[in-house]
Amino acid sequence: MSLIVEKFKKLGAENAPGQETRQSTSNIELRGEEIPGTPVDFSHGDVDAFEPIPGSLDVFVEGVHIGGKQAYTEYRGSQNIREDVAQKLSNFTGSSIDYDKNLIITPGTQGALFLAMGSMIARGDKVAIVAPDYFANRKLVEFFDGEVVPIQMDYFNTNTCCGLDLTQLEDAFKSGVKLFLFSNPNNPTGVIYSQEEIRTISELAHQYGAQIIVDQLYSRQLFDGHSYTHLCAQNIMDPENVITIMGPSKTESLSGYRLGVAFGSSNIIDRMEKLQAIVSLRAGGYNQAVLKTWFNEPEGWMAGRIKDHQAIRDDLLSKFNAVEGFKVRASEAGSYIFPKVPELDVSIIDFVKILRLQAGVTVTPGTEFGSQFTDSFRINFSQDHKAAIDAVERIIKVTELYRK
Amino acid sequence: MSLIVEKFKKLGAENAPGQETRQSTSNIELRGEEIPGTPVDFSHGDVDAFEPIPGSLDVFVEGVHIGGKQAYTEYRGSQNIREDVAQKLSNFTGSSIDYDKNLIITPGTQGALFLAMGSMIARGDKVAIVAPDYFANRKLVEFFDGEVVPIQMDYFNTNTCCGLDLTQLEDAFKSGVKLFLFSNPNNPTGVIYSQEEIRTISELAHQYGAQIIVDQLYSRQLFDGHSYTHLCAQNIMDPENVITIMGPSKTESLSGYRLGVAFGSSNIIDRMEKLQAIVSLRAGGYNQAVLKTWFNEPEGWMAGRIKDHQAIRDDLLSKFNAVEGFKVRASEAGSYIFPKVPELDVSIIDFVKILRLQAGVTVTPGTEFGSQFTDSFRINFSQDHKAAIDAVERIIKVTELYRK
């Protein structure tokens, strides 16, 4: 097999969210009839149930009418919009972001992650990745010929922190890891890193001269009055060693516009822009205009959104907790929960296919978040409230059919 | 210097189109006063002078109103839109494109190029690249740790073909080159590969088992009744070894929407989709809807656009040809010309900076298209007709000030 074919063998996308229709299901045998109900795709949020920030389309249309200046921005994004976003993110994080040096607008937060990783990982570099964490993290390290060093997170046996194994992280740095990437709140569990965890991570990175990428995609949607610690505002590490990633695709439902930002280290942002120049030139020019609505939502809009999501979360947690063998930690932020399922006599991959075929419910298998998560799946509960509850009831019915 | 820093040193973007405002110009001394006139940015087309396909924004807005289904498409793009585009491109090229297997929608043609190269080049692979050709081609090979093997094109001493050195191409294949990438019409010269050149390229690639990527971005905008040969319709090579790239960013002025497509080899398209999944998930969901207007322009719109561009081209060629020392081949397609300048006593990089500072005219230095093109620059003449002529007059005035 050629090198490139081998490389792409490892880069599987068939169990990734959104790709389910491309799966082979010929090996699946259903036990019993299909269970009727409104189909629910828990692999991503439903932007029909939770619509984009009001006025987003209007701002896009204004961008189109600006014309060439908006169509052809610098690769790092339109200067006007960077000024606005840098100010808003400085306020939000409590850090100082220079629009010209420290920020790049990217095609989604996925784009930001790709550019950051591509700008920081050389062949053979060891990169620490949390287990579990967002599935693309591991794939990105592998694509850039790095080596993944997993750091375990004990999210079930903690409740005032996320449970990251900090000893393992220090050992990783000792063994030569120069980059640590993690999402906060964690994807898929929705747990938030405590202030102490963030401080310790910063201190260790500082001590060992490591770089950090924090993916803060869901850091605005906090439940139960939880507090949130921005690593970029800790002033412990050299700021040139930190990149923070955010974007309006999730809480703000703007995924269809493909917008994200990365901010922090000017050297790394410079490299990210050079890479952007050959990857896709820039985030869609007109699309960039939509960032004006971000952090600029109507009064009460964000609070309402958080309240609605918290209510859905609570109902889904009650449903799962009432069933013998399910185990789930309450998410503290974001729209994910990551239930552990009872022992089944089918694999998690097949179970996920069965859920789709038999119950019209799409979830993401735990193995996408780390190979050991063969007993969990992820739900994005940013859905129509009633449809989500009904769908979880169907998941529970299907579970009973395939329980060991 | 660390490996990654070294890698990005080579990946310069500061002389790339659109990045001119980030250049250092402190070393530049102007001879004489600024020459007044409407600023013209020849580094890309002016979408205010030549507007996007009528109705594009309406189709985008419809896409937003479709909602979640349009926001979250498969990574390779919305099925409906792939069906439509595959049909239109099959008709245009005279080849058979299965929407499900042979086509991916990408963030611009730059996105298509990046995904194709990333899916085909392994570390150490030799890749043949034309000199001159689009500047990102070389950078992409270097980013993926391949080795560039340049193939010369004698565009000045030919006129019924582009002048590609086919002996050099065969030698390259003999020496182990497994991938040949070229743009047709050629960027920056605007010359079209003859049918015989395309056939010979196909035969050589077939004979040596090589793969081909053809960037056909400008293949709809043909002047003077020139004919165009689609490599993908020649039936000489194994179709699994060919990827063709197109998009509506240039002739159709849709660059602000960041849309492109790649079609051909199902194996390579599969890999490109896996890569897309970690690069930016998908082309902007709502943006994809805009492809409905492509190849579906109002009656006479494309013919009018070609006529207008041909008229601008003719006027600019007359201006340059009237000046001692300028040499330029008439472009046969697309919106580029690539004039060779008289001998100057400043470098082409500085001359380009001088043009911007002294005459308000932005052009792209020849060295972006191959290191030997130290005496040429590229102009994208998709501009307001009168402003373009005036700007070329200013270029000529500045040339006289810096002539050796």
UniProtKB/TrEMBL annotation, chains A, B:
Residue ranges annotated as coiled coil are: none
Question: Is Transferase among this UniProt entry's keywords?
Answer: yes
Boundaries of every Aminotransferase class I/classII large domain copy: 70-394
What enzyme category does the UniProt record give?
A: transferase
Listed A to Z, the keywords are: Aminotransferase, Pyridoxal phosphate, Transferase
Query: Which InterPro entries does its entry note?
Result: Aminotransferase_I/II_large (IPR004839), AspAT/PAT-like (IPR050596), PyrdxlP-dep_Trfase (IPR015424), PyrdxlP-dep_Trfase_major (IPR015421), PyrdxlP-dep_Trfase_small (IPR015422)
Under the heading SUPFAM superfamilies, the entry gives:
PLP-dependent transferases
What cofactor requirement does the entry state? pyridoxal 5'-phosphate
EC number(s) reported in the record: 2.6.1.1
Q: Name one GO molecular function term.
A: L-aspartate:2-oxoglutarate aminotransferase activity
Q: Name one Pfam family in it.
A: Aminotran_1_2
Q: Give the source's domain of life in one word.
A: Bacteria
Name one process (GO BP) from the record: amino acid metabolic process
Does this entry carry the keyword Transferase? yes
What the record says about family reads: Belongs to the class-I pyridoxal-phosphate-dependent aminotransferase family.
UniProt name for this protein? Aspartate aminotransferase
* The species this protein was found in: Ureibacillus manganicus DSM 26584
